[in-house]
Design goal:
Layout (H helix, E strand, L loop, with lengths): L4 E4 L2 E3 L11 H4 L3 E9 L2 E2 L2 H14 L4 H5 L5 H13 L5 E8 L9 E7 L7 E5 L19 H12 L4 E5 L5 E4 L3 E6 L2 E4 L10 H12 L4 E3 L4 H6 L2 E6 L3 E8 L12 H27 L8
Parallel strand pairs: 7-8, 7-14, 11-12
Antiparallel strand pairs: 1-2, 1-6, 3-4, 3-5, 5-6, 8-9, 10-11, 10-13, 13-14
Helix pairs in contact: 6-8
Length: 297
């Protein structure tokens, strides 16, 4: 197995080397914020979009985003470039950027971990979670490190043989998966929950919506009900690692979805991957023009 790449506060560490103080509230109470970023060809994808969401999350837990992220050419961007370069260009990777709270919000650690991207089948099955969440909870929009609920729900789904589970709200509509956003195709229109339904403002979600608009695929942001799943022509999920991921079955509801054969998700995934390639090419050209001072992405 390929060796993981780990940086802490700009310094590369060997696996097993101590990195975080035991009294960091990121350790004691799980207080922190993170981003997961796709790495292709040794370069991060949609980096600045992820850093914008990272900054919002940091602010909401009381960590100064300027101190952590900085501007163009910052230490964090240089460290991200170094971590991705150390990973190499041959293997698909996933970069996790984590900032712990520390003891007082100012002395936390910034961790970068690059590891292999999950290899998934071309289509997956999901279940519907048995526990609901409050869509009005403001913490639902933060990619925080305190993810016990999602961890337990995902573990339950995977124990039953599914990739993930769809999490309902207390109102009965569906919010998202534990690691993905949800899209449902009904009579040719793609439905996705609005952010006020407790779902994360996914970076890939946003780019996939842009793809659909360019392809003139009707998109509606609204509450998604279980009935939408029953009426669906296609269902797919999005996250940074996998782009658009087709769903072939929903436990207890559907076992006849087209999965990877769905025509709409095929168009979206193909165009999305072209956008990723173009984005990385443009970012590389910008970096070369800047003399290598700006991190790709």
């Amino acid at each position: 197995m390929k060796e993981l790449v780990l940086f802490v506060d700009g310094r590369r560490l060997a696996r097993g080397e101590a990195a975080i103080e035991a009294d960091d509230l990121g350790v004691l109470q799980g207080i922190g914020v993170y981003e997961t970023i796709r790495v292709d060809g040794g370069r991060p994808v949609w980096l600045e979009d992820h850093l914008r969401r990272f900054a919002e999350g940091l602010s909401r837990v009381g960590i100064d985003p300027q101190q952590v992220i900085g501007g163009v050419g910052s230490e964090l961007r240089r460290s991200i470039a170094a971590a991705c370069a150390a990973w190499g260009t041959e293997d698909a990777g996933s970069l996790r950027v984590t900032r712990t709270f520390g003891r007082d919000g100012r002395d936390g650690k910034t961790l970068l971990l690059v590891r292999p991207r999950d290899v998934l089948p071309p289509e997956v099955s999901v279940s519907v979670a048995t526990r609901a969440k409050d869509p009005s909870d403001p913490l639902e929009g933060i990619k925080g490190t305190s993810r016990l609920r999602n961890f337990l729900l995902q573990r339950e789904a995977r124990a039953a043989g599914h990739y993930d589970c769809l999490v309902p709200t207390r109102d009965g509509d569906l919010s998202e998966g534990t690691i993905c956003n949800l899209f449902v195709v009904v009579t040719g229109t793609v439905w996705t929950p609005t952010l006020d339904r407790g779902c994360l403002p996914g970076v890939t979600r946003d780019h996939v919506i842009q793809v659909m608009r360019r392809l003139s695929i009707p998109i509606r942001k609204a509450a998604v009900q279980v009935q939408h799943l029953l009426d669906a022509e296609e269902v797919f999920l999005t996250n940074s690692s996998n782009g658009a991921l087709p769903v072939r079955a929903i436990a207890g509801l559907r076992d006849d979805l087209p999965g990877a054969a769905g025509p709409i998700v095929q168009k979206i995934q193909n165009r999305y991957l072209l956008d990723v390639e173009r984005h990385l090419k443009d970012a590389a050209e910008d970096r070369a023009a800047a003399g290598g001072a700006v991190c790709d992405g």
